[in-house]
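Page header: ASSEMBLY MODEL / two components / 578 residues total.
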Amino acid sequence: MSPVTTSRPRRRLVNLSNFPLFRGTSIAVLVGMYLPLLLVVFYSFNQNRLAQIWTGFSFKWYDFVFHNDDILRALKNSLIVAVVATILSTLLALGAALGMLRMARSGRVFAWGLLGAPLLIPEIVLAVGTLGFFLTIKVPLGHVALILAHTAFCIPFALLPIRARLAGLDAAPFEAATDLGANEWQILRRITLPLLAPGILAGALLAFAISLDDFITSFFIAGPGATTLPVYIFGMIRSNVTPAVNALSTLLLIFSATMLLAVYLLNRIRRSD
Amino acid sequence: MSKVRAPKSPGRPGQASSWLATPTLVFLILVILLPLLITVVYSFLSQPSLGTGVKWVFSTDAYRQIFVQEKLDGTTAFDTRYLKVLWNSFYYAGIATITTLILGIPVAMWIATRPVRFRALLVLAVTLPFWTSVLIRTYAVRQILDETGPIGGFLKIIGVGNSYQILYTPWATIIGLTYTFIPFMILPIYASAERFDFRYAEAGYDLGAKRWTVLRRIVIPGIRPGIIAGIALVFIPGLGSFLQPDMLGGGKTNMIANVIANNFGQARNWPFGSALSVFLLIFTVLFVLMVTTGVRSRGDQVRLI
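Prediction written out in full:
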């Protein structure tokens, strides 16, 4: 009996995961994304007045930031605008998300176009347009103008998590409530809003982060009295006060990262429900 | 015979009166749509002889100024300065799109082939810089590229750094655009790659295709919607970039947004700034329409928002 050659079909490992350069490129890109930011953090502790020549560890730039009246005033302006714009944009986004579910198709297309506009139209176009518009209808530049403009471009960001959560809602509690005779207002207050809560909170956090980080719109709309923190930082970079910029940037980076982690955790609630 | 009541239409869970959306739409019409319309109006007005703003006199000068320069002696000449700016905008945004695509496909594919738990973390890692301020990220790039920064320092140590100068060149702007926009490329491609059924790739291997062929003929077509969305999401905002050319290019690599900003600032020519703004808006809308309608006809689902 001749030996049977059991040639099992040679199974090559597929593995796009081993595709040459995938891993290498990915690691290089991720390092490249974080290295400049880490360097900002590193230099923020540099004692030297020239940010990029390391001469020793120091907290003095943080001290400078926390005791600089102009920076604190800009921070206050930023916070006022961000808090009010967050509340307004989250409420408006919630109304749009709920109301659009019952809109006719043509209405929905129009509404989507309006809601998506701030995401797709270059910010500079909207900023100078808003500047011209406010001057034409005599809205003075400053806090109110800033809040209106920020609310507008925060709405789509607040809307995205709310919509995502709305799309994942189970129909059962709504059917039960209808069968038990609840009216529309009761359903909204007792079922819809509690179920949407994590999405609403995530939307509010995104809106807050977007408003706080905004530069271009604030640059044109703030006017001399309502300079926000990013606008002030831009001025600092222009006049080369770099070590303090590093400290201020580090604080803002930590803040943004905290926001995003909170949104991430809120999204996980959705999955575990 | 019993009467059968038509079941009440259940509707969609959470739906409420469509009137709830009205305040939002009215607000957006006021604060988004009207400013865009006023920009168009401004672009057809004239520049006041003194101060900022516009003079309410109809004029097409703003559009003429994009192409024609009036000399001091009253003669006119074809002006290529602003065409150059338009070209720069397309060129820089285009190169950045290509670079983010070349880097983004491997990253998205790599993340999509990791174990599920690790994937979520990697997506978070890509998303995190996206939520930090563009101003700070651009400043971070500037610090890296500066001649006294780490690259310059390293080149000096190995003795070739004396002529190192990348900041304030077009390449600095392109690097800054690539750096800022790469999450916009990775995330949509990843979303497509995650849904891609890798058994197709496996089948390709089993039928004897080489790895490169599998990538080119099976995987890339499979993730095409993500690639198209990524290209749009990098190129469209890239075209309207202001901070990267301003802070990294140092005013020598103006893109269209810088000229618009300048005309609403120091140059005080609002009609001209508005005309350029209208141009940028038209390019953006054309590009969005191209992506959304052109792609739909090929049967791909591409979502920009």
